[in-house]
Amino acid sequence: xxxxxxxxxxxxxxxxxxxxxxxxxxxxxxxxxxxxxxxxxxxxxxxxxxxxxxxxxxxxxxxxxxxxxxxxxxxxxxxxxxxxxxxxxxxxxxxxxxxxxxxxxxxxxxxxxxxxxxxxxxxxxxxxxxxxxxxxxxxxxxxxxxxxxxxxxxxxxxxxxxxxxxxxxxxxxxxxxxxx
Length: 180
Prior knowledge:
mainly alpha
């Protein structure tokens, strides 16, 4: 149980890391399949919303390409999660949580290179948390349908994490080059 709570806490920490603030009070506590559905569906909505914003406000083509990839993959995953949630009588989130909404508002005020850096950092934290959440559900979930969904989705999330780590490395390399 401690490991499950730790993994879910890591997810909330990852999402809030970009803001350097505590986890949202309205975020569900981890531990049940219902909590997984709420957390994963809220994060999925956030992924699509953030990516749509990135398509409008990002400066670099690779950041926009990543954003389009997020829209494509997370829209598909969100639809599948909603089907499984409905089938199993779980209630998904109807909107992003408060911390994601706060981050979205901050990003909305940015453009260009500043937006790119902030978006990439938020995605890095979000995907680290998502991988931990889905690993936890795949290992410890009680509902076979949700466990199967988590197992099926996990490789895609790990791929997203590698993609955003590469973007973050590119950002760091460019910052280091400017400092020389």
